[in-house]
Amino acid sequence: MEKLFHLKEHGTNIRTEIIAGLTTFFTMAYIIFLNPLILGENSPTGMANTAVVTATCIAAAIGTWLIGWLSNYPMAQAPGLGLNAVFAYTLCGAYGLSAGAALSAVFIAGIIFILLTVTGARTALVKAIPLSLKKAIGAGIGMFIALIGFVNAGIVIGENAGSATTVGMGNFASPTVLLACVGVILTIVLVVAKVPAALFISMIATSVIGCICQFVFGIEMGVSAPTSWVPYLDFSMFGKCFTSFGDLFSAPLASLLATMITLVLVDMFDTIGTLIGAADKAGYLDENGDLPKIEKAMLADAIATSTGAIVGTSTVTTYVESTSGISAGGRTGLTSTVTGLCFALSLFLSPIVGLVPSAATAPILIVVGVMMCGSLKDIDWSDIEVAIPCFLTVAGMPFFYSITDGLAFGFIAYFVVKLAKGKFKEIHPLMYVIVILFVIKYILSALTSMGVI
Fold first, then answer.
1. Which of 19, 17, 52, 27 is nearest to 356 (CA)?
2. Residue 64 pLDDT > 90, yes or no?
């Protein structure tokens, strides 16, 4: 283990890495059950739920192992939230592609990512981003995952009947909300007391409380009791991306172009944003805000995207929930190895994963969000040229419920601010390309919404 992952060099040990890997897995295990809701038989894709579960577990395991072994970073990958919605409701819904054709598009996007990575283009894009924006990305992701945690816990709810606000406080008479609040309090106490593996302990303890309340006292806590030990193994979508290239290229040129730009931009900047944010939390960024070995992490992401398309799921990306394992002490690829193994085992033991309710994982997201906002102190808020793009990046991610859209607004604002000040030379040439691509993406989205394409 020492030879493979250099544990002593990173100030960690096998026990800590195992706990961190388990923490990351349980924090993001919801994707095993959520992905079929978005990509399954009741969505525009029409894919069988069992096929989506199988593909999700395999893609997550392979992607997580790849990033851990290639970069030795404690990151995890799985089919991305938001990216799966793009697949189902944009590619299959708005553009009318079949599930197989959409998988073909994802596979091609993965190949494009691989080429961009091995040529150094993706790394150059990261280095083109100003340090202040990199710091804002980390904080923005912290706000984003904290909001996910609040929503998953039911503490924050969207607009409902009779409400005059866009969001509001949840119903504290709900048992699941109360369980989440108990989890938040327990997590805060353990973290402040600096208890080792505080996040993992709080998650398990909250899950045990939830199971007792539901199975002993009959109070619904969102725990899924095992109903069958039969594994979810359905390979009906395996290889569909290869047999559906004809369907993809028979689509209208405008739709095809919009499809590829959407996939490339969304995955590229979701990955870049997540990697920088998680790496900042782990202390991996250098003095310039750059991530050493980022090309290896991005290569793992690119390969995982194409692999995910082959097994039958939407774009695979690095998960912001990786920060939960990092916060639990994970510092090497051994953390990823454990997380990936858990995803592989979930093919056979997936009903057990349901014993960890969202009320138990939500508090971890909230507290990790707090931790990630520490990078805000490194931004010069007194300089309005810095403050505007950084604020829009930080605020945009939770408000738009999208890492990519938050990045887009921050980058566009940075571009506008520099032009307004006449500081053309301070804009890296690649930032022009990035901003133009984002603008094209939004124009194509608008034209699609209007039915023009």
1. 27
2. yes
